[in-house]
Design goal:
mainly alpha, Hypothetical protein af1432, 15 helices, about 60% helix
Length: about 280
């Protein structure tokens, strides 16, 4: 069994010395985010930034015409897409759509694990978005993004694991180390990306079933419940009724949100968005 404290120390040292690079947001995502935050940028200006990335442009148009966002008239250009969706929604979508670029393995031996984490993240993103429907104080696109980035800390752990045969060859041990270290590393990544505090807390708390948010529930609560709904919780010491996040969201333990009429279709539509 690997010493996770020493592994974390080695991991942080590798990051600090630039021997291991943390995932970074592509320049186009940073430019879109900065432009939206300036609150003076027009839809045309945002569209021009996105147009510099042909693949992202095509994906955004595809999403704008998807069942989740389409209107009566099909959208065939970026300016229309940004104008219809709104710049803040576009900002969240751009960051969400480029996340798949970040979940790429650099080692064939760990490719399956990268793929598994991405698929789980997409599933949690879809459920998180649906869970936010009845929470007026939270944004459903931010909830979706929270689901996508909740386990972002696993990526540097996997990159470091490539140098440790005992982890590459032992899936159970690798999962254990990821669960222990991902929250701290994920928080560090989102701080580096200048994400809002409401999202930075998500990686830090997604495995903490004792987490209690202030107020009426937050994105960490949503992701926690989404993971419970997806049966991804590894902690068997808690019963659903005892999880504070369930109470915050007003969820009854016996309710399976995926089985609610119309919800399964929404979840499928969201998942398809990230598989094209």
């Amino acid at each position: 069994m690997i010493d996770e404290k020493q592994f974390l120390s080695d991991l942080n040292e590798a990051i600090d010395s630039n021997k291991l690079t943390l995932p970074t947001l592509p320049e186009v995502a940073l430019k879109v985010r900065d432009a939206v935050e300036q609150e003076m940028s027009s839809a045309n200006e945002i569209a021009d930034i996105i147009a510099s990335d042909a693949a992202l442009s095509a994906r955004l148009l595809q999403v704008a015409n998807s069942p989740l966002y389409r209107g009566r008239v099909p959208i065939d250009n970026l300016q229309m897409a940004v104008a219809r969706l709104g710049v803040r929604l576009v900002r969240s979508l751009v960051i969400s759509l480029i996340m798949q670029q970040i979940f790429q393995a650099t080692n064939d031996l760990l490719d399956a694990k990268f793929h598994q984490i991405w698929e789980e993240s997409v599933q949690i993103a879809a459920i998180s978005r649906v869970l936010s429907y009845n929470l007026d104080h939270l944004d459903k696109e931010q909830a979706m993004l929270a689901g996508l980035i909740h386990n972002i800390g696993a990526l540097p752990v996997l990159a470091m694991a490539e140098t440790r045969d005992e982890l590459v060859q032992d899936a159970a041990e690798l999962d254990r180390v990821i669960d222990i270290l991902s929250p701290q590393i994920g928080q560090r990544i989102l701080e580096m990306w200048d994400f809002p505090e409401s999202l930075i807390t998500v990686p830090a708390n997604f495995l903490n079933l004792q987490y209690e948010s202030d107020g009426d529930g937050d994105y960490s609560d949503i992701v926690l419940v989404a993971r419970l709904q997806a049966n991804l919780n590894h902690n068997t010491d808690f019963e659903m009724p005892d999880v504070p996040a369930m109470k915050k969201l007003g969820m009854e333990p016996e309710v399976n949100i995926i089985e609610i009429e119309g919800v399964a279709e929404d979840i499928q539509n969201i998942e398809v968005m990230f598989h094209n």
